[in-house]
Amino acid sequence: MFGAILVLLVLPLTDRSVVRGNAFKVLSKFFFFLFVFNFVLLGKIGMCHVEVPFVQVGQIATFLYFAYFLIIVPVISTIENVLFYLGTSHK
Q1: 2, 80, 83, 76: which is closest to 35 by C-alpha?
Q2: In the chain, where the domains are located
Q3: Residue of 23, 29, 24 whose CA lies nearest to 73
Q4: How many CA atoms within 13 Å lie on the side-chain side of 1?
Q5: In this predicted model, what pLDDT tens digit does every residue of 32-80 receive, in sequence order?
Q6: d(CA 7, CA 26)
Q7: HEC secondary structure over the chain
Q8: Predicted structure pTM score
Q9: Cα(43)–Cα(12) distance, integer angstroms
């Protein structure tokens, strides 16, 4: 549980995007809304009994929670940086 809070401190280091805010970043918006869905899912799974389908769903959702901060955000910000530089390059 401490890791779920601690991983929030890593976010400024993993977000390498040159454009701040998600207003013009479609991929970041999409994955953010998936993260919000995953967060709500973790809350609902936390209320369920410890039974076979809920344990596996909870483990997958927990992996995706941490993967969002440590894997998805750096990859998406790198892709969006490349797209930003390709869009602003003048010939």
Answers
A1: 76
A2: 24-88
A3: 29
A4: 2
A5: 999 999 999 999 999 999 999 999 999 999 999 999 999 999 999 999 9
A6: 24
A7: CHHHHHHHHHHHHHCCCCCCCCCCCHHHHHHHHHHHHHHHHHHHHHHCCCCHHHHHHHHHHHHHHHHHHHHHHHHHHHHHHHHHHHHHCCC
A8: 0.87
A9: 25
Cα–Cα distance for residue pair 66/33, rounded to 1 Å: 15
> Which single residue is written with the structure tokens 């869009």?
87
Q: Which two tokens stand for residue 10?
A: 């890593």
Q: How far apart are CA 9 and CA 47, in angstroms?
A: 27
Q: Tokens 């601690």 identify what position?
A: 6
Q: Which two tokens stand for residue 24?
A: 């013009």
